[in-house]
Amino acid sequence: MSEQNSVNTGINAPKSLAWTMIVFGLIGWIGAFALTLERFHVAANPDAVLGCDLNVFISCKSVMLTPTARLFGFPNSLIGLAAFMAPIIVGFAILAGAKFAMWFWRLFLVGNTLGFIFVLFLFSQSLFVINVLCPYCMVAWAGMIPIFWHLFLFSAKEDIVPMPIRTTSFWDWAAARPWRITLVFELLIILAIVIRFWANWGPTFRKLGWF
Questions:
Q1: Beta bridge partners of 58
Q2: Half-sphere exposure of 49 (CA within 13 A, CB side)
Q3: 12: in domain
Q4: What is the CATH number of the domain that holds 142?
Q5: Does residue 3 lie within any of the structural domains?
Q6: According to its UniProt record, which protein family does this protein belong to (predicted)?
Q7: Can you say how many angstroms the Cα of residue 201 is from the centroid of all Cα atoms in its chain?
Q8: Residue 10 domain flag
Q9: Which domain holds residue 127?
């Protein structure tokens, strides 16, 4: 699709992308909202034991009290509360028949890419620096990952992100199967978590009464 045509008519995004942004935007927003409530709870009562504090390596409180949890001087969850509204709004706009220009999609992709990079940074910090997993944080991450991959693959197919001509067939193939790409990436994330905390899973499952 030419850029001139996209400026005049806008790019018609599929409803599957819209629903992905709405559903997973809501999931991410709920995770950020729950984490914000727990942060207020801890601020009011520093000795509080939160419902998401399961043990020494699965704990919201242990993560939210670290400098990483407030990189910009305020809780990261507040960023999520604002940021996850964007894909939800855009998704509903697409369902209502809206078509956005090339420049909008590029800016929107930049914003979501920054969010995705931020999630990867927080993930790496949890695994290798803080050494603790935050359940509500992971809910927010689970919302961000599908949104990014669906949007990126759509953008590659529609030439919103210019790709080499010889890779066109690959991006067409990938854009038709966004859930496969998303699933592979999420399985890699899960595998990294399982391996990193391998020694902790047995005691955790026994505490929960799973075996």
A1: 133
A2: 3
A3: no
A4: 1.20.1440
A5: no
A6: Belongs to the VKOR family.
A7: 24
A8: no
A9: 17-208
- Non-local (6+) Cβ contacts of 89 within 8 A are none
> What is the pLDDT tens value at each position of the chain, 211 positions in all?
444 444 457 899 999 999 999 999 999 999 999 999 999 999 898 888 888 888 888 999 999 999 999 999 999 999 999 999 999 999 999 999 999 999 999 999 999 999 999 999 999 999 999 999 999 999 999 999 999 999 999 999 999 998 888 888 888 898 999 999 999 999 999 999 999 988 877 666 566 666 5
Name the phi and psi angles at 75, rounded to 5.
Answer: -55, 135
DSSP bridge partners of 82: none
- Phi, psi for 141 (deg, rounded to 5): -60, -40
Q: Distances in Å between the alpha carbon of 132 and those of 46, 126, 129?
A: 19, 5, 8
Tally the domains of the chain.
Answer: 1
Which amino acid type is present at position 59? Answer: S
Contact 147, 25 (CB under 8 A): yes
